[in-house]
Amino acid sequence: MFVQKEQLFIDFSSIAWENPAEGIRRKVMAYGDQLMAVYVEFKKGAVGTLHSHPHLQISYLQTGSFDVTIDGKTTHQKAGDFYYIPTNVVHGVVALEDSILIDFFTPMREDFIPKSVKPMEEAGA
């Protein structure tokens, strides 16, 4: 199953995995109109390609390490580190080992919501 908008309690094991790119899988864990949290696993060598979006983003590196590029500057980051992405700034990552990121977006990323998710009132929740 996928998490519903403004769902109050979320069981990690009940949320379906998505595979947005080779070596990357993610779970949208919680969201409302103004905020979204996404759990993302990377296999060693997986690339979060350079991209930009109008959302503010903060990422927490839960485990592993990455080369993180933001606005043309690349730095090595490890478990416990954070990084901040301003709106419309080009950024991306390369996983240097099997790694996990927790991404936070404001406002929420509508493009991350699977088309099969129904609003809570329609889903009978």
Give structural notes.
The protein has 125 residues and is mostly beta strands. The protein has a domain at 28-110: Jelly Rolls (Sandwich). The protein is built from one helix and ten strands, in the order ββββββββββα. The strands form two sheets. Strands 1-2-3-10-5-8 form a six-stranded antiparallel sheet, with no helix packed on it. The protein has a four-stranded antiparallel sheet with strand order 4-9-6-7, with no helix packed on it. A hairpin with a 2-residue loop joins β6 (65-70) and β7 (73-78). Residues 120-125 have low confidence and may be disordered.
pLDDT < 50 stretches: 120-125
- Would you count the extended β strands for me? 10
The topology string of helices and strands comes to EEEEEEEEEEH
How far apart are the first and last residues' alpha carbons, in Å?
Answer: 13 Å
Largest sheet, order of strands side by side? 1-2-3-10-5-8
Instruction: Please name the CATH topology of the domain at 28-110.
Output: Jelly Rolls
DSSP helical segment count: 1
Oligomer: single chain
Strand content: over 45%
Largest sheet: number of strands, sense, barrel closure: 6 strands, antiparallel
Assign the structural class, choosing from mainly alpha, mainly beta, alpha/beta, alpha+beta, or little secondary structure: mainly beta
CATH architecture of the domain at 28-110: Sandwich
- The coarse silhouette is globular
* Mean pLDDT figure: 93
Which short descriptors sum up this protein?
single chain, six-stranded antiparallel sheet, four-stranded antiparallel sheet, 1 helix, globular, disordered C terminus
